Amino acid sequence: KTRDEKDGRFVVKLKEELSIETAAGEPKEVWKEREVSVTDAASSRRRDFFIAQYLNLPKTIEPGAYNLRIKITDEADGKTADSVVPLTITAQ
Hints:
Strand content: over 45%
Oligomer: single chain
Helix content: under 10%
Radius of gyration: 17 Å
């Protein structure tokens, strides 16, 4: 949600959370990235918005099938989008 600021700017503020869970059986979190807040201010209202973040995984995660959970929260209204993407980690 875009907030109209008093100075004429349009601001979007999002919070991103990333985690990796086991894919088999009951999901168990094996890794979690620290929360990242992203703020974008522009002179005109945005029609789209992108967030990119590298995954710097620890070497302690064993090869196998996992799920990457992505959670984005709009800090303007508290609404959250949560998505799960299959992820395979292989040995080097």
